[in-house]
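ugh finaly. both done.
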Amino acid sequence: MAQKVMSLDHSVVSYLQLKIAEIMFTSDYNAAILIIYKALSMSKVLLWIAVVMGAIYIVRVNYFGSKTYEPFMNGCLVSGASEARCSCLTDYVHERFDDLEVGRILRSDRSDAAFSERVDRVIAAGTLACKSVDQ
């Protein structure tokens, strides 16, 4: 099966090379551009499919099925804050960090100084933003 795919790819490439060479000798540049465009149009389709799949993955990871939402909320509640304030802070943090970063926060992984400073800023800003929730 792999040999057939390789030979198919090789034959397509060979065909394109022959057509381009033929056109170059006949000085029909419009046809050469058309052949190159047709060859590239499939890669454009594949590129768009990759972009859409990447966007779906990012949305799924960030907004659906978060594995850190509940543990973060429970950790906040253990600290003695109200449920409303913890819910607000959890939403605030999850809007600004992806699931992997929140996992690092929960594990207290502060090995990167820039990340540690960003966490401190976001938690402080989130605490201030969620202060009015209890009142």
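ok and the 2nd:
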Amino acid sequence: MHLRPLVAVGLLALAAGAAALTAPAPAPADEPSPAPAPGTASSPAPGTAPSPSPEASPSSEASSAPEAPPTAVTITGAAVDPKVPSRVRVTLAYTCAPTGQPRSLNTSVEQPDPEDPATTAFGATRTSPTLVLCDGTPQAQTVTVQSKTSTWLTGTDSVVVTTLTDLGATPPAVADARRIRLDLPPVP
């Protein structure tokens, strides 16, 4: 006889608990807060603003701290080396923050021969991590890519891809790819 009301109360408690777990948090009420406990500081009277604090709050300090620049890399140009036609000089611009984590800069160039579809010049290079300066300022670097298959053709489009990897950054890698017509560099 007493079992039926206990089961009903138990089911009601389970339903209320499940609803509390799945329901979004209630919005703050416009009711006044409860009175402070004895021995604690009282809150200001309604309608008055608190006096300004001479110290910055932690949230304003966090927002005023300089953020690390995002890791970025851009291919700014490419030209066939006039003295060694199997080399291409690729100029890059990049920025990365000092993280103390492993980093690398890889660049590749691919150029199909328009007269012979079976021939493709291809080369890649990896810049030594000690030469990849990550101090948060914009950097420029020229890398040399040696063709592993044939000499580079002037006046012909190529695909240039570069990837800057910095495992301590967010995102950990960025890349740029461009279609660039390879020519000899301009004569100074």
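summary for the 2nd one i guess: Residues 5-34, 36-45, 47-62 have pLDDT under 50 and may be disordered.
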